[in-house]
Design a protein that fits this description.
Structural class: alpha/beta
Largest sheet: 9 strands, mixed
Distance between the termini: 36 Å
Order of helices and strands: HEEHHHHEHEHEEHEHHEHHHHHE
Strand order of the largest sheet: 2-1-8-9-7-6-3-4-5
Shape: globular
Bound molecules: S-adenosyl-L-homocysteine
Number of helices: 15
Helix content: 40-55%
Length: 341
């Protein structure tokens, strides 16, 4: 069976016409509760340590400064979930191939063209880690990629890897805030955010910046951690759910979470087109158990002990991610759209 058959039919919404091709049950699932996404996101109580912009940025930078080389030693240059599926020719134990597959599946979901005249040429990698996606995408399309991260250690390492791989003319990385990107409007034909959205304290500003730097007709891809969509009767998550997410926030320097439906609503409010979203949680299920197994090896344990407190705290939170997925609270979401021409 081809992989595509296993991927759930995307939830497809054309924001310009408000035309929906969702089946009724799927639409009900995606529909937002009465409070609009923006109001709900603004209404969430700020958390003194993580929602304060400066403290949060510093925490994120230090967390990745401290943990990135350990991650790279064990897992390589992609700091995102692997995409695993039963039909795959990729072995479940080949995590690096699964992480590359995540990039491929995201591009495929967003229908990014490989045709010479249509393929992306200018790409921004928002929350670039050590630049694994940028280098991969640059090679695949021959594109120029600019990456931003809050971590100086990551930016430096990403540039060093690009130089070592002969890509210094094609890709470059700098320290910058995704909420205030150092780029003029309309620069990029592919805007890529792979597992950085969960760190953004202001989701509206985040998606507005993605849309601002996108060129007319550009594709925007957001792959991110979300909480489950709320039922129409719910105003917020349940108390136990909030408590579990808070623990994860404290370990990984995350502000308040939002749902996939919140993202869709935000993108609609910015008049973006061809909005699609899907829950890929089932395809990433083997990931955290694998990370825990790798941390429990001799190499993993010794490296972890030498890495620093933030990284160790992060390691202790890994079972919480598994619990969140198992209890259907955490969703691994892809949301894509196109900026109008
Ligand atoms: N996309 C990369 C890394 C994911 S880790 C990959 O797939 O390998 C999360 C990344 O988001 C880190 O590089 C972190 O520095 C970055 N990040 C988090 N908040 C950010 C912000 N406000 N501005 C820029 N980068 C941010």
């Amino acid at each position: 069976m081809k992989t595509a058959c296993l991927i759930p039919t995307p939830l497809l919404i054309n924001s310009r016409t408000c035309h929906t091709i969702l089946s009724p049950p799927a639409w009900r699932q995606l529909r937002s509760p009465p409070l609009s996404a923006t109001k709900r996101l603004l209404a969430r109580a700020p958390n003194a340590t993580t929602n304060d912009g400066r403290l949060l940025r510093e925490g994120i930078a230090e967390f990745y400064d401290e943990s990135s080389s350990l991650w790279e030693d064990i897992w390589g240059d992609h700091m995102h979930h692997g995409f695993y599926s039963p039909d795959s020719s990729v072995s479940v134990s080949d995590h690096r191939a699964s992480q590359v597959r995540m990039i491929e599946e995201a591009l495929r979901f967003a229908a990014v063209s490989e045709e010479p005249t249509e393929k992306p040429q200018r790409v921004v990698d928002v929350g670039c880690g050590i630049g694994g996606s940028s280098r991969y995408i640059s090679r695949k399309f021959g594109a120029k990629c600019l990456g931003i991260t809050l971590s100086p250690v990551q930016a430096q390492r990403a540039n060093a890897l690009a130089a070592a791989q002969g890509l210094a003319d094609q890709v470059s990385f700098q320290v910058a805030d995704a909420l205030e990107q150092p780029f003029p409007d309309g620069q990029f034909d592919l805007v890529w955010s792979m597992e950085s959205g969960e760190h953004m304290p202001n989701k509206r500003k985040f998606v507005s910046e993605l849309a601002r730097v996108a060129a007319p007709g550009a594709t925007i891809i957001i792959v991110t951690w979300c909480h489950r969509d709320l039922a129409p009767s719910e105003q917020s998550l349940q108390q136990w759910e909030k408590e579990l997410l808070n623990k994860i926030c404290n370990a990984y320097f995350l502000p308040a979470w939002c749902s996939t439906a919140d993202y869709v609503e935000l993108l609609q409010s910015l008049s973006l087109q061809d909005i699609k979203a899907a829950d890929w949680s089932q395809y990433v299920a083997p990931f955290w158990p694998a990370v825990i197994r790798s941390a429990l090896t001799w190499n993993g344990l010794t490296s972890l002990l030498c890495s620093g407190l933030k990284t160790i705290k992060g390691a202790f939170a890994m079972p919480l991610m598994i619990e969140g997925y198992k209890k259907d609270l955490i969703k691994f979401s892809i949301i894509t759209c196109r900026k109008p021409q």
